[in-house]
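Notebook, student rotation project (T.W.).
Task set for the rotation: take a protein with a known small-molecule partner, predict the structure of the complex, and write up what can be learned from the model alone. Partner molecule chosen: zinc ion. Sequence and SMILES entered below by T.W., checked by me.
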Amino acid sequence: MDDYLSKIKEGILNALFPKFCVGCNKEGQYICENCKVFLGEASLICPVCEKSSFTGQKHFHYSERYGLDGLVGVWEYEGITRAALNEIKHKHIFDTISEFVENAFEVMKKDVLRFKPFLSFLYLEDTYIVYVPMFLKKEKRRGFNQAKLIAETIGKVTEKEIISLLMKIKDTSLQTDLNKEERFKNVKESFDILPDLSFIPRNLALVDDIWITGATMKECCKVLKKAGVQNIWGFTLFRTV
Ligand SMILES: [Zn+2]
Ligand SMILES: [Zn+2]
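Predicted structure of the complex:
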């Protein structure tokens, strides 16, 4: 679509479905320019021990053969980001996702030193994007999988292919009310590799909406690495600190 037509389309959509800032309710964007300042960037951590790592690259952990090689969680999960994720999950507002993914790339572009290991990995020719799947019945009930939508938007921004490799095979209970140990137990053996895959990529960026204890992402990573993927970085919009 050329610029002119897409502007008309945007104008019509804005008139029909006005956007309101999740921070201050001002009309126009989901995060207005004033509230953007209050988004707290999360410091990066090693995905294995969750201790600080400047670039998100994992430290040397000898025992973690099937662990993540790096992790980027862009914003702290609090206040505004909590409200935003709520909008995404419960009000089906997909535009919020595009806005956050675009903002995330802005953040990373501005701080190349910190995000260089992740970005250079992401842009490698043989790096593909994969997302954390939902249990199919649950996805049908909700109507969408926000991790998939985030992955697809990243795919658009980076012109990268999104692939499906995983399926959720256990309808696990909601992680919200569980403590750390219970979360790990809850997701154990709840993912599997899709049957009849003809291609297992060498490098993957694994996408989810939020990193809380990392239980889900770690479990997905283990399954993917056991299937033959060699390097996996995790990417989430939010992280609890
Ligand atoms: Zn605002
Ligand atoms: Zn570590």
